[in-house]
Design brief:
Number of helices: 2
Helix content: over 70%
Radius of gyration: 39 Å
Number of domains: 2
Strand content: under 5%
Distance between the termini: 134 Å
């Protein structure tokens, strides 16, 4: 049989246990939040490092330029080459007609 003093002790222990559980849950949630913030910060650092590495690599490969500059230069070269071939073909055809006419 539980007497009045025993009931108070059980109730006190329940309260202590509930408070300890609540505090443990709060601590766990705080730890998870802090871990999430740490992971986000590490991710940002990694992204910045990779971006810097990519930029350095791009400049090393392109001789201080960029892939975009090289692509633009290659596009211009291709257009110039096409124009050169077109002009050369026109001159050739014109010379053929001149030679035929003579």
């Amino acid at each position: 049989m539980v007497n009045g003093a025993g009931e108070k002790s059980v109730e006190t222990l329940k309260n202590i246990w509930m408070t300890a559980q609540s505090e443990a849950n709060d601590a766990q949630n705080k730890m998870l939040e802090d871990t999430q913030k740490w992971a986000e910060a590490q991710n940002a650092i990694l992204e910045n490092s990779l971006a810097d590495l990519g930029k350095t690599l791009e400049q090393a490969i392109t001789g201080g330029s960029s892939y975009e500059d090289l692509t633009t230069a290659l596009d211009r070269a291709a257009v110039s080459q096409e124009e050169y071939l077109t002009t050369t073909n026109k001159i050739y055809e014109t010379n053929k007609l001149i030679n035929k006419a003579q």
